[in-house]
Write a structure and sequence with these properties.
Aspartate Aminotransferase, domain 1, alpha/beta, Aspartate Aminotransferase, domain 2, 469 residues, 15 helices, four-stranded mixed beta sheet, 2 domains, globular, 14% strand
């Protein structure tokens, strides 16, 4: 689906009244959810006294209560009550071979048994892993491992400022680049600004410039206005658009960002935490043919094994990470580049290439997206639609991410539409589908006809709960 069609369909949904599930039908689904998940509820009740909010994971469905998972294999997950799910969360995108992929896990188990998890010093695996990343990513000549995508984004910004000697960072509204102080601004929905900034000082945003997605004029103005105010060190983007393509990029956006960075001698940072090794083995930079100066990578480089993140880029840019006391930027992380994570990176990338994991996951996503749109077309009164960037799928039911913040009832609209989308997700979860935030799905190479048929069956049932007209 092309950019303009996505934008048009979003606006058509926003022009319609929200279509909630009638309360009597919804209550039956809530009752089913609670009946199926009694043990999860017990765990949540205990967790509320031990963990703030009772849940650690931002990806969890928290209404009416989060599910506690027991195990995962292939594209299935089982919760502590024994319910089985077709998983499209995939740990938030890193799983593309499938959960608990035997030949990968066996290598890691062998390392733990024979070598131990970490020494705090160099191991050969970090060299092997770096070579694999560089071999695939055309814009990467050197790599520094870190412990998360958030850390990698922090490092990328510090590298850009050190290399250019400039101060300003341009961020696109609605994008997610981790939760460091300077990046928690206009999260999720463009224009929300300081909405999520409690506990962060105003000074943290002194050199951050927020521009609306695909606003070419505002982007150029940000560069021009910054010339005498410290200059723009870098523009940081999600290359398929904010929230992994929830706010899709205009076809000319990345190219224009690259041109302006070159003109103003600034750096382009591609945050490829989701797109790297998922959209393409060479990332979005290879997919679009646009080379960033700095690339941010996250959890997918270790295929779900923990303590995973990396920042890479041009050799001259990355050189600011080396040198004597006071000459280099400071980056830390005792467990960064530990043998488990870097071995997982090395073997996972080898296996992904060997099995054509991206190609297979993309082929499935294409089929599922087309099938969902065929199903949604039977309910023209709703306007639901789906689209995908390779194995990164989006389905739009209430379009709460697309609400114009300048409309007089914007926040009421967002909350009402988000609540309805959450209610839809209660139904899909209660019937065995696990997705991300009620809007997004990630495929792996093991999703098959059985998964597709189950997904369509659940969605057909959900549509039957929503009155026509």
């Amino acid at each position: 689906m092309e950019y303009q069609e996505i934008m048009t369909l979003n606006q058509e949904i926003l022009a319609r009244p929200v279509k909630p599930i009638p309360e009597d039908r919804l209550q039956k689904e809530r009752d089913l959810y609670q009946k199926r998940n009694r043990r999860s509820l017990e765990i949540f009740e205990k967790a509320r006294h031990l963990i703030p909010g009772g849940v650690e994971h931002n990806l969890s469905q928290s209404k009416p209560f989060p599910l506690a998972m027991d195990r995962a294999k292939g594209y299935h997950m089982w919760d502590v009550d024994g319910n089985v799910y077709v998983d499209y969360l995939m740990s938030g995108a890193p799983i593309i071979l499938g959960h608990a992929f035997d030949s990968l896990d066996e290598k890691i188990i062998e390392i733990i048994r024979e070598k131990g998890p970490a020494t705090g010093l160099t191991s050969e695996y970090e060299i092997l892993a770096a070579e694999e990343i560089i071999r695939h990513m055309p814009g990467v000549e050197m790599v520094r491992f870190l412990q998360s995508g958030t850390e990698a984004d922090m490092a990328a910004i510090r590298i850009a400022r050190a290399f250019t000697g400039k101060q300003k960072i341009i961020k696109v509204g609605g994008s997610y680049h981790g939760w460091s102080d300077q990046m928690v601004f206009s999260l999720h929905v463009p224009g929300t600004g300081l909405l999520n900034s409690r506990g962060i000082t105003a000074e943290s945003y002194a050199h951050l410039i927020d521009v609306k997605p695909n606003d070419f004029a505002a982007l150029e103005k940000a560069f021009e206005d910054s010339k005498d105010k410290g200059g723009v060190a870098a523009v940081i983007v999600e290359p398929i658009g904010g929230e992994s393509g929830t706010h899709p990029v205009h076809p000319d956006w990345n190219r224009r960002v690259r041109e302006l960075c070159d003109h103003y001698q600034s750096l382009l940072i591609f945050d490829e935490v989701v797109t790297g090794f998922r959209l393409d083995m060479g990332g979005a930079q290879k997919y679009f043919g646009i080379m960033p100066d700095i690339t941010v990578l996250g959890k997918i480089i270790a295929h779900g094994y923990p303590s995973a993140g990396a920042v890479g880029g041009r050799r001259d840019v990355m050189s600011v990470c080396q040198g004597g006391m006071g000459e280099k930027i400071y980056i830390g992380g005792t467990l960064a580049a530990n043998p488990i994570t870097t071995a997982a990176c090395y073997y996972a990338l080898k296996l992904m290439e060997e099995h054509d994991a991206v190609g297979k996951a993309t082929a499935y996503a294409d089929r599922l997206t087309a099938s969902l749109n065929d199903l949604f077309s039977t309910r023209s009164d709703l306007g639901f639609f789906a689209y995908n960037f390779g194995p990164i799928m989006h389905y739009v039911t209430t379009a709460f991410f697309a609400v114009d913040l300048f409309s007089p009832d914007a926040f009421t609209q967002i909350m009402t539409r988000k609540q309805t989308a959450d209610e839809y997700q209660v139904v899909t979860l209660a019937h065995g589908l696990c997705t991300l935030a009620g809007t997004r799905m990630y495929s792996c190479m093991q999703h098959d006809d059985e998964a597709l048929n189950k997904t369509l069956e659940v969605w057909e049932y959900l549509l039957s709960l929503i009155p026509r007209g």
